[in-house]
Amino acid sequence: MAAGRPWVRRLRTVPTHLLLFTLVTVLAPGWLLVGGIIDLVRVITGRRHAIAVRLFVFGWWYLLIGVLGLAALAGHWLAAGFGRNHEEMREGSYRLQLWWAKQLFGAVVRICRLTVTVEGLDQVAPGPVIVMMRHASLIDTLLPNVFVTGRAGIRLRYVLKKELLADPLLDIAGNRLINHFVDRNGDSVAEVKAVAALAEGLGAGEGVLIYPEGTRFTAARRDRVIAGLGERDTGLAERARRLRRVLPPRPGGSAGLLEFGHDVVIAAHTGLEPLATIPDAWSGRIVGSQLRIRFQRFDGKAIPQTRRGRVDWLFDRWDEVDDWLVGT
Q1: I need a surface site. Which of 136, 172, 184, 206 has the fewest CB within 10 A?
Q2: Are 247 and 213 in contact (CB under 8 A)?
Q3: How does pLDDT run across 100-147, given as a tens digit for each residue?
Q4: 1 inside domain
Q5: DSSP 3-state of 293
């Protein structure tokens, strides 16, 4: 759960979202005209994919889904006796979360003409399970809901960065569910404990989702992480230097989750790298791409019992993800 005074934050973020949606909708004809001209110039002069209109359409759709989601959350609150029935609100938030992810992911697939292939989805269930996913783009945060929850039937507790609270839908729904929004500038010991606590009491249809890298991959970030590791652990720094397409996993929260002995699913994917940043998206390279997702399950009983052993095990898995990415 997020600390602080959420109602103060939401007094700012909810009206901002509604205002943005209104402005974008009212100005849509002008934006589409300008975007169409930009795309025409891109195609004629640079032989690049048209992307301006695509980005505008997705941005408008994202805002619309947010508005509809906020209305649904208000309805849940009313139906739950003005928020008194927390279990009913949580159940509504689970359904809304899945709908939200499907709507946005489906839009990306259609707008960008993606081809999606998935392997190992049959290995995800049953729970309890810890899902560790590669983080490479602005969009891969949708994949766990679409595939792990929507198709494999595992309800997830999420480890999310605190900055995502700027999205009012993620803020309100996310805090009605069992998640933790990590404050990367906070007390690291307390944050690790809060992340590990998510693995307590998991049932057969439940899991925890974490991105062990902590942020999206870039070469510059990789160099910074390696430099930091070199100051604390030269052995891990040396291992990290061998990674080519992924960031070294951050041991803290991930290693804490491994203490519970639950099976682990490693989720690797490639194809969304052209959406890593806004400039990457503007390149248009995402259009017509192939998204490949691979799930692999590992027996929790085979994970080492010592903390150092768990960290080494995690680095072994990330070596394998890196090799798979290089080979695709």
Answers
A1: 184
A2: yes
A3: 999 999 999 999 999 999 999 999 999 899 999 999 998 999 999 999
A4: no
A5: strand
